[in-house]
Design goal:
alpha+beta; four-stranded antiparallel beta sheet; about 60% helix; 15 strands
């Protein structure tokens, strides 16, 4: 979409411009009269709306993110006006902007001051702007009702006056309005336009309305000069030299004003201008250039003014340029600039006095400029005081250089102080060498370790003469670093240097490097110490639930009983039996039996059975099942371990426990016919006995009859 603004300028020339999208993110503004592109705006988001103001000097555009932007075509400057913008429009035939942000209706009466915005709270969506009959209203749809918000027509008309150049009418309009941020912005806009059009009285009125009385007073003088020029017959008063000079002053173009006045021979006015501005240097320069007799008087006045206003530094510079070094030094000291005073005092042309030198040195120290004080003392040949000043100012490089020349015995102490100072400043790398120079090897090593300079720390420990316990302490720290970085070989090396092989063993144990741990242990530790270390480490692993690793350690030091007991405590009986079988074969059967009894007590009959069988005592397993009325399991074990006969014995026992007909049926079930007949006869179940004998074993019939007869006789 492309939008255009067409307008005829006040001077009659055509002003035709069009703004359109070159692509979705860039806008071009084209002058249709000249065919020249006057602006190109590149944006970082897609543009969904754009419009020029009536005079084609401002461009409004909105992007897909609902951000509203303003682009000023003459200055090529852009700013963001609003976020979450759902509606925007120029008020017809004006430079007033109306936009909506959520529940806010925003109105910019003076778009030259984008920060000045009038906000109304609304409850709907803006639909349109209507302007007719001297009224401008914003129509808002609130759902059920449509509400109109009336805009300030006087503020809107002000923009029309500015576009048409009717500045007098603009003043009349603003005078009718109360002071507000919007009207202040308009007075400022009008003032700038009046100055640009050389409407000095209007600009004066604007400054008065803004409360800038100084500028208003100055403009009155300009206006009076213009009136004098008009009365003198000058057609264009703005070309009068005094008017031009004062307008240049107003715009802070003082060099232009000076040139204008000097061209007309008005030296006094040029000097007076600079004096009023307290720019004495320029005034004195003009006086010297023109050979004015009051030059010295000006310098004196300037000097006195500098002193009265507490500008001792500038006063000292003035005296320095004049060659009055003594006064300049005193002024520098008075102004708290002892370094400048010291620099002057060291000039070859200056006659130094002990009192002044002492004063300067004291001022340097008081100001905390100890290094400069030291340099000052050094040039004066006061080496001891120079060294003291360097120390107080932590200027150790210069202190060491001086000490090497004058106080060699102080060099070591200075290097130590230097190193300590660098440590306090967290410059640990730099401190290392100074501690070495001072022979403070322990501090050098500590600094290297804190600076993570491990190779440097090792180098110092290796080469320095240290007590064995001290060296071992640092080797251990280095070893721990290498362990943290998983460089275990280097860590082992330094643990051994630290005479701490047990820590190397523990390191390898933590890393599951059992072979390396064992190698170090047997190489560098006694058998008893190895055993104690391994047992302690294994117990720690056991406490942490790492039983497999603990077992390895127990076995490495030939303590299988501890491993067996560990598995027993944790009720891991399979592992326990495995170790007993490997290391205590003579106790294997006893262990199985003991475990079986324990498991039986705990009610774990299947596990108990397995251990009874493994112990070779399957009958105990049968008895266990019999005792708990688990006859099927008892028969199963008896048959599997003792054969058919054994299982029949168990079956018979089961039948006995059942008694009567049920017992006989059970024996029959297991194929024990003869035993079943005997059992039925003995149980007086003669009917069942006869039935079994007739069907399965007729040879037993006589015996059954005789038993029955015998029973009846009894």
């Amino acid at each position: 979409g492309a939008l255009a603004a067409l307008m005829t300028a006040p001077d009659g020339s055509e002003n035709k411009k069009i703004a359109y999208l070159q692509d979705r993110k860039s806008i071009r503004v084209l002058d249709l009269v000249t065919g020249i592109s006057v602006a190109t705006v590149d944006h970082d988001s897609k543009v969904d709306w754009l419009e020029l103001n009536p005079s084609a000097t401002k461009l409004l555009f909105r992007d897909k993110r609902r951000n509203l932007h303003l682009f000023d075509i003459p200055t090529q400057q852009r700013c963001t006006l609003l976020s979450y913008c759902s509606y925007v429009q120029w008020v017809p035939m004006s430079d007033v902007v109306v936009a909506q942000n959520r529940d806010n209706l925003c109105v910019w009466y003076s778009i030259e001051a984008p920060e000045r915005v009038t906000i109304f709270q609304i409850k709907g969506d803006v639909e349109d702007i209507e302007r007719s009959g001297g009224r401008t209203e914003v129509i808002v749809d609130e759902g059920i009702n449509t509400v109109s918000y009336r805009l300030d027509e006087a503020l809107i008309e002000f923009g029309t006056c500015m576009d048409s150049g009717d500045l007098v009418r603009a003043v009349v309009l603003l005078e009718q309005l109360e002071v507000s941020p919007e009207t202040e912005a308009m007075w400022t806009t009008l003032c700038n336009a009046a100055l640009a059009a050389w409407k000095i009285p209007i600009a004066e009125r604007c400054c008065a309305a803004l409360g800038d009385s100084a500028k208003a007073h100055f403009l009155r003088k300009v206006n009076e000069a213009a009136e004098d020029a008009r009365r003198a017959g000058l057609e264009d008063p703005s070309q009068h030299y005094l008017v031009r000079a004062r307008m240049a002053m107003l715009e802070k173009q003082f060099s232009v004003a000076e040139s204008t006045l000097l061209e007309q021979g008005h030296v006094d006015e040029a000097m007076e201008m600079y004096q009023e501005l307290h720019r004495w240097d320029e005034a004195i320069a003009i006086a010297e250039q023109k050979g004015r007799p009051e030059t010295e008087e000006l310098k004196t006045s300037y000097y006195q003014w500098l002193l009265d206003t507490g500008q001792e530094e500038k006063a000292a510079q003035l005296k320095e340029r004049e060659g009055d070094v003594d006064t300049a030094i005193r002024l520098y000291l008075q102004g708290g600039l002892p370094a400048r005073a010291a620099a002057l005092a060291q000039m070859p042309s200056y006659r130094q006095t002990p009192e002044m030198m002492e004063t300067i040195a004291a001022a340097l120290s008081k100001a905390g400029l100890h290094d400069k004080a030291g340099s000052f003392f050094e040039r004066l040949g006061m080496a001891e005081r120079a060294l003291e000043a360097y120390r107080r100012g932590f200027a150790y490089r210069r202190a060491v250089d001086l000490a090497r020349q004058k106080f060699p015995r102080e060099v070591v102490a200075l290097e130590h102080e230097w190193g300590m100072y660098l440590v306090s400043q967290k410059q640990l790398d730099a401190a290392i060498n100074h501690f070495i120079e001072a022979g403070q090897y322990v501090k050098a090593i500590e600094a290297a370790i804190q600076a993570r300079q491990w190779s440097k720390a090792v180098q110092i420990v290796d080469t320095a003469t240290l007590e064995p316990p001290v060296a071992e302490r640092f080797y251990k720290v280095v070893a721990q670093h290498f362990e943290e970085t998983k460089n275990l070989d280097s860590a082992e090396k330094f643990f051994l240097k630290a005479r701490a092989p047990q820590e190397a063993v523990e390191m390898y144990t933590r890393a599951n490097k059992w072979d390396k741990a064992h190698k170090v242990a047997v190489t560098y530790m006694s058998e008893d110490k190895v055993r104690m270390l391994y047992v302690a480490q294994a117990q720690r692993l056991e406490g942490g639930g790492r039983l497999k690793e603990a077992e390895k350690l127990y076995l490495m030091v030939k303590e299988p009983d501890l491993a067996i007991n560990m598995y027993k405590k944790n009720k891991l009986y399979d592992h326990m039996i495995r170790l007993v079988g490997q290391h205590r074969k003579d106790l294997l059967a006893e262990t199985h039996l003991h475990l079986a009894q324990q498991l039986e007590t705990e009610g774990k009959f299947k596990d108990a059975e397995r251990h009874y069988v493994d112990a070779g005592d399957w009958k105990s397993a049968v008895n266990m099942y019999r005792a708990h009325d688990m006859w099927d399991d008892a028969i199963r074990v008896a048959k599997a371990q003792g054969g058919v006969n054994a299982s029949k014995q168990v079956a018979y026992a089961w039948a006995v426990s059942l008694g009567g007909e049920a017992g006989a049926k059970l024996l029959t079930k297991f194929g024990l016919i003869e035993q079943a007949i005997d059992y039925a006869t003995e149980s007086n179940a003669f009917d069942q006995a006869f039935q079994l004998a007739r069907t399965s074993m007729k040879s037993k019939l006589p015996e059954v009859r005789s038993r029955r007869v015998y029973n009846m006789v009894d």
